[in-house]
């Protein structure tokens, strides 16, 4: 289906989505973006051919508006967007923690809003995105958003009440993996391996383990037990992780991320 798309905010996620849409067969003339920094706007136009516009132009010309700014920048953006937006325009929010009710209060009555929690692997076409409909969004609107986001990864539908949990789990999730990989690389160096060798060993192990989870359909416990021989090296390592409470710490960390997501939403909740 041919329709025009404007991405408001051309950071890493905004650029990744635009590039994915272009690579997925969208016409460059149907893609536009807004960007506060002229140098950044010129860079994207030169690299891809996308048209840089202001918010008012995006609101008037685009069939789908994708909001990809930082949560703290949402209020002034909605001030610009609201007076220029047609009620038939689909608004897609990629802003962590912001509820659809915020948009519905600030935009013309009846504008459909779909909330999305993506994550940074979008830049390599491997995003995990969860989508939720607002009050006026229909099944057709959700299908449109699924179509858009499927070019940069996997999409699931969840009730909006679960979006804070999604934010904590998959939205922040890549950071947890990067943190673990960083620690394991340092462990390799501690054991005497060159950094380059340690990095290659751990990164490929992470890629392979993720592929096993995705392709075999086996439960993580089953896959872990297959590596864990009686009285072997792996069980000794697992014992140390349990002694140091790594599992409990991870649960607490994800709960803390969920709580922060809820807090961000409350900061913009006027109800």
From TrEMBL:
Pathway: Amino-acid biosynthesis; L-proline biosynthesis; L-proline from L-glutamate 5-semialdehyde: step 1/1. Residues 160-264 form the Pyrroline-5-carboxylate reductase dimerisation domain. NADP(+) binds at residues 68-71. Keywords: Amino-acid biosynthesis, Cytoplasm, NADP, Oxidoreductase, Proline biosynthesis. Pfam families: F420_oxidored (PF03807), P5CR_dimer (PF14748). It catalyses: L-proline + NADP(+) = (S)-1-pyrroline-5-carboxylate + NADPH + 2 H(+); L-proline + NAD(+) = (S)-1-pyrroline-5-carboxylate + NADH + 2 H(+). GO terms for cellular component: cytoplasm. It comes from the Bacteria. SUPFAM superfamilies: 6-phosphogluconate dehydrogenase C-terminal domain-like, NAD(P)-binding Rossmann-fold domains. InterPro entries: 6-PGluconate_DH-like_C_sf, NAD(P)-bd_dom_sf, P5C_Rdtase_cat_N, P5CR-like_CS, P5CR_dimer, Pyrroline-COOH_reductase. GO terms for molecular function: pyrroline-5-carboxylate reductase activity. It is found in: Cytoplasm. Its EC number is 1.5.1.2. Catalyzes the reduction of 1-pyrroline-5-carboxylate (PCA) to L-proline. HAMAP family: P5C_reductase. This is Pyrroline-5-carboxylate reductase. It comes from Actinophytocola algeriensis.
């Amino acid at each position: 289906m041919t329709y025009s798309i404007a991405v408001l905010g051309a950071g890493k996620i905004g650029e990744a989505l635009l590039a994915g849409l272009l690579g997925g067969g969208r016409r460059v003339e149907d893609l536009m973006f807004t960007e506060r920094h002229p140098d950044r706007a010129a860079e994207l136009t030169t690299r891809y051919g996308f048209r840089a516009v202001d918010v008012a132009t995006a609101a008037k010309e685009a069939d789908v508006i994708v909001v990809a700014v930082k949560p703290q920048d949402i209020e002034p953006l909605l001030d610009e967007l609201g007076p220029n937006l047609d009620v038939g325009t689909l608004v897609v929010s990629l802003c962590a923690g912001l509820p659809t009710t915020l948009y519905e209060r600030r935009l013309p009555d009846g504008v459909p809003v779909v909330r999305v929690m993506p994550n940074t692997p979008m830049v390599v076409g491997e995003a995990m995105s969860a989508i939720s409909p607002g009050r006026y969004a229909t099944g057709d609107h959700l299908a449109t958003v699924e179509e858009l986001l499927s070019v940069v990864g996997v999409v699931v539908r969840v009730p909006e009440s679960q979006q804070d949990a999604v934010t904590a789990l998959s939205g922040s999730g890549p950071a947890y993996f990067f943190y673990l990989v960083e620690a394991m690389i340092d462990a390799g160096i501690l054991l005497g391996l060159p950094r380059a060798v340690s990095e290659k060993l751990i990164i490929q192990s992470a890629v392979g383990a993720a592929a096993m989870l995705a392709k075999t359909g086996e439960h993580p416990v089953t896959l872990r037990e297959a590596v864990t021989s009686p009285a072997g090296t792996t069980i000794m390592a697992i014992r140390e992780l349990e002694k140091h409470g790594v599992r409990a710490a991870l649960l607490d960390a994800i709960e803390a991320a969920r709580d922060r997501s809820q807090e961000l939403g409350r900061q913009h909740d006027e109800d």
